[in-house]
Every structure is written in C-alpha cells, then in structure tokens.
Design goal:
The structure is a single chain. The chain is α/β, with parallel strands linked by helices. The chain has a single domain, classed as TIM Barrel (Alpha-Beta Barrel). Helix content is 54%, strand content 17%. The chain has an 8-stranded parallel beta barrel with strand order 1-2-3-4-5-6-7-8, surrounded by 7 helices. Helix 6 links the parallel strand 5 and strand 6. Helix 6 packs parallel to helix 8. The termini are far apart.
C-alpha cells in the first residue's frame, strides 16, 4: 500500500520526504487556506519536495469550470493530480479530463456506487472518506472492501485512495482490506513509528551498552 501525506504544510512535507516512505501528497482548499500566503507557491514547493502524485482540488461547481481549472492546475507540475468532488458535474468533468489524459482524484466518496461511477468515468484515484463514515455511525472499512472487490471483479485501473484517516488502526485496516493508497495526516503518520515496547527495547540496549563501556 502506498502512503500519502494529507497536508499542505511545507515543514511537515519536508520532514516526511526524508523518511523515504512517502509516495505522494493530498491537499484541499481547506488545507491550503490554513497555510496562508500564496497557495500556488505552496503547491509548487510540494511538487518539488515529493516526486509522486500531488492532488490539488478545483473549486468550481460546474463541469465546464472544473475542466477549465484542471487544465490550469495540471500545468503547475507534471505530478499534479486534479482533485474533483463527486457528483453529476464532477463525473462529467472526470469523463472529459480522463479522455484528455488528465489524472483525476475523485473525492468525497461515501458509497460503492459512487466509486463505480468514478471508475467508469476513468478516475485515476477515488477517495472514500472512512473517518467521516465512522462519524456517521457506520464502518468506513466496509466501503473500502466493497470498492476493492468491485474494482477487482472488473479489472478497473482506478486506484482506491483511502482518505479521512483518523488513527493508526485505520491505516492497518486499509492495508488489510487491500486499499491501493492511504492518505494520512502528519500526526497519524508520526504515530506509525512508535510502540512502547520499541522504546523499552532501545532503552534496555543503551543501558546494557553503558555497562559494557564501564567495564572496559
């Protein structure tokens, strides 16, 4: 499973790039607005730091406007993927863009039927929001499994990009369900490194080494 960072914070992305395990980045208008300043400059820097797919979202609500924005956004860098919200207009735009060879991340997916429409429209990624589904009292991971099964049945090239990841267990269950990608907030990504037994083991090794040095 590929791991993306879900952030527009340059410092978080710069640190993440040093780990050697980050395959891409997802942004949205909220994340970019949170950073302030020149959003185009932020996207430029993200694309420079991470060579993998960088999702940048349109803000138009009609297909024609989405397509127009998409062609402008894709010129920022070769690794930009256009993020488009699910809906009739979004599917129209996705169909047009995919036929033009533009990679689309169809976002705000909450049902397997929406995912199927996205795959039929030629989306490069479809992004189910597992955390928000959990918030509504359902199990977001069931949606991931349903999407993986459908795409496998018909050999769709569209990749399942699990979004709205809230904690490390979400990451584990996405991997178990066969998601192609999980896009993970910086805080949750940092938690993946840690386990109390690892910390305990390191402390024990260092203490034993100090004893060895004292005896020399």
């Amino acid at each position: 499973m590929k791991l993306f960072l879900d952030t527009a914070n340059i410092e978080e992305i710069r640190e993440g790039a040093t780990w050697g395990v980050i395959d891409g980045v997802t942004t949205n208008p909220t994340l970019l607005a949170r950073e302030g300043g020149n959003w185009r400059g932020v996207v430029d820097e993200i694309c420079r730091l991470v060579p993998g797919p960088i999702s940048v979202e349109v803000v138009s609500t009609e297909a024609d406007g989405m397509v127009e924005e998409a062609f402008k956004l894709k010129d920022i860098a070769e690794n930009v993927v256009i993020k488009i919200p699910m809906g009739e207009e979004g599917i129209k735009a996705t169909s047009i863009l995919s036929q033009e060879g533009v990679k689309v991340n169809l976002t705000l997916i909450f049902s397997p039927n929406q995912a199927l429409l996205g795959a039929k429209a030629g989306a490069y990624f479809v992004s189910p929001f597992v955390g928000r589904i959990d918030d509504a009292g359902q199990d977001g991971m069931i949606l991931i499994q349903e999407m993986v099964d459908i795409f496998d049945n018909y050999s769709f090239d569209t990749q399942v990009l699990a979004a709205s990841i809230r904690h490390p267990i979400h990451v584990l269950r996405c991997a178990q369900a066969g998601a192609d990608i999980a896009t993970i907030p910086y805080k949750v990504m940092k938690q993946l490194f840690n386990h109390p037994l690892t910390d305990k083991g390191i402390a024990a090794f260092l203490a034993d080494w100090d004893k060895v040095k004292e005896g020399q």
